[in-house]
Amino acid sequence: MDAISAIILGIIQGLTEFLPVSSSGHLELAKAILGDQTVPKESMLMTVVLHFATALSTVVIFRKDIYKIIKGLFSFKWNEELEFSLKIIISMLPAAIIGVLFDDIIETFFNGKILLVGAMLILTGGLLFLADKAKNTNKDVTFFSALIIGIAQAIAILPGISRSGATISTSVLMGIDREKAARFSFLMVVPLIFGKIAKDLLSDDFSIVNINTSALSLGFIAAFITGLFACTWMINIVKKSKLTYFAIYCIIAGIVAIVWSF
Predict the structure, then answer these.
(1) How crowded is residue 151: how many other Cβ atoms within 10 Å of its Cβ?
(2) Alpha helix locations (H) across the chain?
(3) How far apart are CA 221 and CA 226, in angstroms?
(4) What is the pTM for the complete model shown?
(5) What pLDDT, in 10s, does the model give residues 54-110?
(6) How many whole angstroms separate alpha carbon 161 and alpha carbon 124?
(7) Distance between CA atoms of residues 173 and 134, nearest Å
(8) 178-203 vs 80-101: helix axis angle to the nearest 10?
């Protein structure tokens, strides 16, 4: 993979990881459009690097919240931080279980299945449209809603379903405050991303001949910087109830992907 393609993929990952338009779906579409001819393991290594970059940007944006979560976990007494930490753990369980039990099946979905990506993008668009019409409230995330949001995140493993779109929309449709929904959505995925990266690095042989370290570095930098911008932008978008624009985009992108697949 050349440097220009790596930067393009990095920007796409940085934007779409936080914006409700499916990062996995757009990476698959971008690889198809760019004619990605890299071997599967090299392509997977680039995906791992880009996801690490956006996870790191999330840590930077929410560093104070993450510190409180860690502090709450090790306080060994019931307080607001410990309660929030337990909700994060509960929300992670569905995706973690699905990832462990069906990892091989899931990987088959990320093999240029553009028709699937298109259909799931249209589904994401419909979900965002419904969420944007929901009334705003001041409700907090409960233990039950954390589980439901976690199930939405597990379903969003499919390429084309936006993880942030699915989790934020599910939260808003359950009446959770929009800003709290966005914050919870971004924080709940950080441990999962780092866990998935560790699993991929341990289980896959990335000793590929002629790895383009410059391309990997440029992709990482592009994803990290873009991710910092997109994460902050997305929180403001959710607060201002402007998800309909992304719903329209996802539906159009989904239709284009379906046509492209034929």
Answers:
(1) 17
(2) 3-16, 23-34, 40-61, 63-73, 80-101, 103-108, 114-133, 143-155, 163-173, 178-203, 213-239, 244-261
(3) 8
(4) 0.79
(5) 889 989 998 888 888 787 777 777 888 888 888 999 999 998 888 778 777 776 766
(6) 5
(7) 6
(8) 50
